Amino acid sequence: MFSKTIAQLSSGLQNGEFSSSEITRAYLDRIKSLDSKYNAYITVTEEQAMQQASAADKIIAAGQASAMTGIPIAHKDIFCTEGVRTSAGSKMLDNFIAPYDATIIEKFNAANTVSLGKTNMDEFAMGSSNENSYYGAVINPWGENRVPGGSSGGSAAAVAAQLAPVATGTDTGGSIRQPCALTNLTGIKPTYGRVSRFGMIAFASSLDQAGPIAKTAEDAAMMLNVMAGFDPKDSTSATHDTSDYTASLNQPLAGLKIGLPKEFFSDDLNPLIAEKVQAALKEYQALGAELKEISLPNTALSIPAYYIIAPAEASSNLSRFDGVKFGYRCDNPENLEDMYKRTRAEGFGSEVKRRILVGTYALSEGFYDAYYKKAQQIRRLIQQDYISALQEVDVIMGPTTPQPAFVIGEKTSDPIDMYMEDIYTLSLNLAGLPGMSIPCGQIEGLPVGLQIIGNYFAEERLLNVANMFQQATDWHQNTAPGL
Amino acid sequence: MEWEAVIGLEIHAQLATTTKIFSGASTAFGAEPNVQACAIDLGLPGTLPVFNKKALEMAVMFGTAIDAQINKRSVFDRKNYFYPDSPKGYQTSQLFHPIVGLGQLDITLSDGSNKTIGVTRAHLEEDAGKSLHEKFADMTGIDLNRAGTPLLEIVSEPDMRSAEEAVAYAKKIHGIVTSIGICDGNMAEGSFRVDCNVSVRHKGDDKLGNRTETKNINSFKFIEKAINGEIIRQIEILEDGGHIPQETRLYDADKDQTRTMRSKEEANDYRYFPCPDLLPIIIEDDYIEAIRNQLPELPDARRLRFIDQYSLSQTDASTLSTNKAQADYFEAAAKQSKDAKLAANWLLGEVAKMLNQHDLSIQQSPVSAAALAELLIRIKDNTVSVNAAKQVFEAIWNQEGNADQIIKEKGLKQVTDSGSIEKIVREVVAKSDKQVQQYIAAEPEKRGKMLGFFMGQIMKASQGKANPGQVQAILKPILDALC
To answer: What is the CATH number of domain A6-252?
Structure first.
């Protein structure tokens, strides 16, 4: 049962093969017995899950079920959930019980899904290995000394270890796609604004976007059907119409034009990864697609631009964590300044502090033009590169990550090396475009991800492109050893 | 050597929206602490701002009212600083692209001369909460009811050269914002606050001296005092060979002096950058013109109309039209009493005197325009004499009833029965032998002046109730008959 997709669970629930209470119970029991091995969850909401499951069962019995009714889901601990601790992986919010639901949580509740709990993550979504969590590192089910990627590492590990059939994540520079690549999962970062950010604890507001982490493109499409849509509570949310993302999953790919940015296939790319990606591209050719080399000339600038813009926004977004109104406050502050300084020194982890420092510096008087403004100009160039490229091709493909899952602790002493982990993913966030990662092979038993990038609001097309590959291959069906 | 002051004002006008600039919480004044602060106002993790379009409309109204440039694209920026009553750790404001650009307006000074004052800009921003230092021993309370209240900050050019000019300018802005209904103008409640930038230099110098900014002054009287005090302080320091440090000061009304709040060295680097949670505000010409066409009558137009429609003098029309509430009061009383001149005289005389004595604004007057008009009608139809009317007015002020009730209860009805008046006249004449002899002895052309004594005695004998016109008409023939 734990290998079932949510599409399969959905039909099983509606055919009466099992109840939501049964599968929810089974998942909760599995989490209880196995999660100590992975550390995928920060909080398991057992009681609430069973209540939601029982409510879902009544709806199913009454014949009023929709596709997602009764489906258990794990939510990244970055989405505020009323009455439940919402920590963002930080000591700063270890005592924070959210008094309201994020918009996507409201939507999942309205769809009568079941929330199993809140998953581990890099603190405030800052990281690519899930080693920056106050609640400890997450273990990749594909290798007990390997990172699951980050920052949605808990969500990816939970689905890969079958501790949840599906999960939510967020992606600011690759935080959905990179963990999916490292754990053999399918994830989509939608177009910026496609999914509401209301109630999602902000890292970098102009880059953050929520999306699903799933076993298949079909499951991701079902999740996106719940998550997507305009939200009047989020001014940056898109008014563009949503589609039924499952509607054209099986549309044939004949004539699909795939762009291959030469910058993504340079000599720097790990040849083993290149081989897997090339094999996947051959598969696409077999499905009727045409390949075309393209260029995204400003790709190299995406890391420096990103590491100005994201920390700048973060330095401001994280100012509210000051010990005054919620969250951690240091013991016995002597005065206001002492309270601010010690609260923030004790409450934030070192990567968060590093980014606050970088962002504060980049925005400070005299440096704004040289850093922030320049980075925004580069951002527009990167966006222009993509816009012109996508006039010639339907989708762009390349590797999701430069290498498979690395060993825990391997990169923690070298932040720049860690930042390079996102070299292929973060230009997309700068451009605001949608992108996916799907499994396309393994290197020495570790999964490799293929990244698929589409035009603005082309999620339906991306999911179709991903699904057709999954119909033709079985990489996505591989499960971690020892499950 | 002669000194010259250079003054510029920053006026914070609280916009009269019913809800806050970025949330749906109420902006009403005076509620229990923190009951009007929602999750967004508290800056809870994950919350996002949604711009209140009503605030935009009001800002554009102001811009069109002073015929300023309206920027069709304006942008919210974050002003980052830590303070306990700033819940997000930043204030959302507009630095780089304000909604209202350059404009100007004319002020009239006491000598009747006019002067044009430039308005640099007006921008939208959110107010902070309040820190309550007095209520808690060794602690500071935070009330966030005011946090997120929309403000329009109106920045002048440094065009003023005296406190009188500054007050005239502030009153002019006050008249405009209250006339177009975008601000209630209540200075005591902080709806209209003024920061005064003051520097001095030798007359004829081009270069500006170092300036100080005295913040948050909430009465016209204090603006005058603070500026005058600051000018004298700066001149004294400079004449002693000292230096004026650029700093922020506070006006202490109790001591009538300004004192240092923070020096330039202590000033924050606000690290302004465009707020990534809010889209730029884009407006069209049609929107601006629709607002311009629906602008209510402005104080200048009203002044001209008062002269034209009610035949008021320049001075009276100007005084009555500057303050919207006073102008409304006047017009209501004028219309109801059908005697604009009488209404103007009473408003600028008795009503102003009492308001001043009790330190009340016209809105707080215990005598409504309608109540005053009832009294004015009784003066006009000779029911009460002007002297008796003053007694009636005091009684209305003291809430003893309406004009007719008080006239009746206090027996202040004017005696117009000529038989009764003649009786009193003859009694007084009979008792005033000495004055009668003087009257007879006087040259006929000087006798007119001598009537005053008899008039006084007769009015006294009638307890002020005799109609003075009638008394005079009866008295003179009686006395002349004795000559």
So the answer is: 3.90.1300.10
